[in-house]
Amino acid sequence: MKVTARAARNLVGAGLVGGLVWSVVVEAAMPSWFDPGDSCPGVTTVEQHYFPPSAKCVYEAGRSVDYVPWAKTFILTVVIVLLAVMTVTGLVVLGWRLLRRGQTDLGEPKPKRPALHVLGAAMLGVATVAIVRAVIIIALLMGGPPGGATAFVIVALGAIGSASALDRAVGPGRGGSAGSRRRGTVLVVTAAAAMVSLVVATWSEYAQHNTLLGPGWAIAVSGGVFAVLAAAQWIPTGRRSVRTT
Fold it and tell me: Are 90 and 12 in contact (CB under 8 A)?
């Protein structure tokens, strides 16, 4: 069965929204992270896992009690597997449509505005990291690590859509709308990889600020990274786009 781009986007959207809801439900089913003793009176430690969703209250002498019922663990595991399949399937279809040949067109002629494109990319980088910091912290508090990861993917996809729209408006203009989607994806994915590498390389500095996603200067750095990558997309490639029918 052929999956259209619209159906793929619907799968991704439903999977990610469902993932956020799932993460909140799982976090609510776990013992309180703020006060474990309130959920497990007299507990020594709490062991919890997000896949499959389970938790144990461990008492003295090694005695443990399952906090999450087996039936709930089973249901939540089946649900997250289905949501993951939906999301991955949609992303694979969209990625394939993005990369396959025959998706290039000349598009409508438009003026080239490299300065606006680079400036817009810088602003997008600043906004993206600022939003990521706020959204992921909230998602972590409400949905734990799965909620934070899902929120990151949602923000990244939103940034790709914004980068593609910016490219269509004032970008290089090669390849029409299909080319804009490719360049927008490359811009955000490459910038995200660079910022993650920065986090890993300066983790001790990040840890000192106790802000989960690092000090404020990371926002400015992200703007610079987005701007440099956008400027690089204006470098001539020596290839011409061909309209397809």
Answer: yes
- pLDDT per residue as tens digits for the range 101-115: 554 444 555 557 889
CB 152 within 8 A of CB 136: yes
From 22, 26, 50, select the one nearest 150 (Cα to Cα).
22
Which pLDDT tens digit goes with each residue over 134-183? 888 888 888 889 999 999 999 999 999 999 999 888 888 665 677 888 89
Residue 48: what residue type?
Answer: Q
Task: State both tokens at 99.
Answer: 């990369």
For 34-81, give the DSSP string.
S-HHHHSTT-SEEEEEETTEEEEEE-GGG-EEESS-HHHHHHHHHHHH
Q: Which of 67, 52, 39, 180 is nearest to 117 (CA)?
A: 180
Is residue 241 over pLDDT 50? no
Is the sign of the CA dihedral 28, 29, 33, 38 positive or negative? positive
d(CA 159, CA 55) in angstroms, rounded, equals 35
**Cβ contacts of 146-153, under 8 Å, gap ≥ 24:** 146/19, 146/22, 146/23, 146/26, 146/50, 146/80, 147/20, 147/23, 147/24, 147/27, 150/16, 150/19, 150/20, 150/23, 151/20, 153/16
Helix residue spans in 171-237 (DSSP H): 176-201, 203-209, 217-232
pTM here is 0.82
